[in-house]
Amino acid sequence: MEKWHIVVDIEKCVGCFNCMLACKDEHVGNKWLPYTDEQQKHENKWINPEKHERGSVPFTEICFVPHMCQHCDEAPCEKKFPDVVTKRPDGIVLLDVKKAKGKKELADACPYGAIVWNEELKTAQKCTLCAHLLDDGWTEPRCVQSCPLRALSIVHCEDTEFEKLADKQNLKPITNGSNQPRVLYKNLYKFNKVFVAGALAFLDGDIEKAAVDARISLSLNGKKLLEQKADFFGEFKFDKLPKNSGTFTVECLMEGYNPIRQEVTVGNECVKMELMTFEGR
Ligand code: SF4
Ligand code: SF4
């Protein structure tokens, strides 16, 4: 059977919040019963592009990670509240509007923080994937439709077909995937991996200049893993390194100068190396 799957591309999302506003536009002031009651105007967000920073000045990077209900196949919310939560055959997870009333504890049942408490209506709510629209023949929920960068996409296909797509595009769940989420992320390294960055210079007389095109390699336990050239500013960056992946050797080479070797330990955070200056042989 064909089911719904969502793909979020972290490299494409610019944090414009159009998805969140489209969700508000669809659900604030509108009751789409029996799917959901209306969304609270303020605070409650059923999709939330959260800012995530990596690195430190001058090697800083910001990305936005849209968080929403993952429509899990092994949903913890459903396990805890089977009388309130329904998993539809097409993959969409819905809360029973009547039974969710007064159940603030539903919010704690979601490890993704996707269930919010509507204080005005005294009810628990979450993203419905605009099931009222999809059931009416729409091919996209409002968030996907409104994303100007196509950072969000929806795929309606058999699970086996989607698995092939996930393999091909390296789509990953935002956590370890044990709840079998139906929302998968592309380029998740911006959120869960780290980089080692630095800058290289050389002395031309008394003047310090950027070591453009110097060659830099990254090795672990004597094995060269990555190699690149310094850019126009003499800067380099080795990205997509797993957190806590060990102590690496950074070796920098420039013709006519002594090589530079430094050890860097990759922990939980990105590493900024101090400026390294080539000295003559
Ligand atoms: S993300 Fe949370 S609310 Fe959505 S299905 Fe999974 S456990 Fe339930
Ligand atoms: S609309 Fe698209 S680009 Fe804008 S915040 Fe949402 S996912 Fe990101």
Automatic annotation (TrEMBL):
<keyword id="KW-0411">Iron-sulfur</keyword>
<feature type="domain" description="4Fe-4S ferredoxin-type">
    <location>
        <begin position="4"/>
        <end position="33"/>
    </location>
</feature>
<keyword id="KW-0004">4Fe-4S</keyword>
<dbReference type="InterPro" id="IPR017896">
    <property type="entry name" value="4Fe4S_Fe-S-bd"/>
</dbReference>
<dbReference type="GO" id="GO:0051539">
    <property type="term" value="F:4 iron, 4 sulfur cluster binding"/>
</dbReference>
<keyword id="KW-0677">Repeat</keyword>
<keyword id="KW-1015">Disulfide bond</keyword>
<keyword id="KW-0732">Signal</keyword>
<keyword id="KW-0408">Iron</keyword>
<keyword id="KW-0964">Secreted</keyword>
<keyword id="KW-0249">Electron transport</keyword>
<keyword id="KW-0479">Metal-binding</keyword>
<protein>
    <submittedName>
        <fullName>Fe-S-cluster-containing dehydrogenase component</fullName>
    </submittedName>
</protein>
<dbReference type="GO" id="GO:0046872">
    <property type="term" value="F:metal ion binding"/>
</dbReference>
<feature type="domain" description="Saposin A-type">
    <location>
        <begin position="103"/>
        <end position="143"/>
    </location>
</feature>
<dbReference type="Pfam" id="PF13247">
    <property type="entry name" value="Fer4_11"/>
</dbReference>
<dbReference type="InterPro" id="IPR003119">
    <property type="entry name" value="SAP_A"/>
</dbReference>
<dbReference type="GO" id="GO:0005576">
    <property type="term" value="C:extracellular region"/>
</dbReference>
<dbReference type="InterPro" id="IPR050954">
    <property type="entry name" value="ET_IronSulfur_Cluster-Binding"/>
</dbReference>
<dbReference type="InterPro" id="IPR013783">
    <property type="entry name" value="Ig-like_fold"/>
</dbReference>
<keyword id="KW-0813">Transport</keyword>
<keyword id="KW-0325">Glycoprotein</keyword>
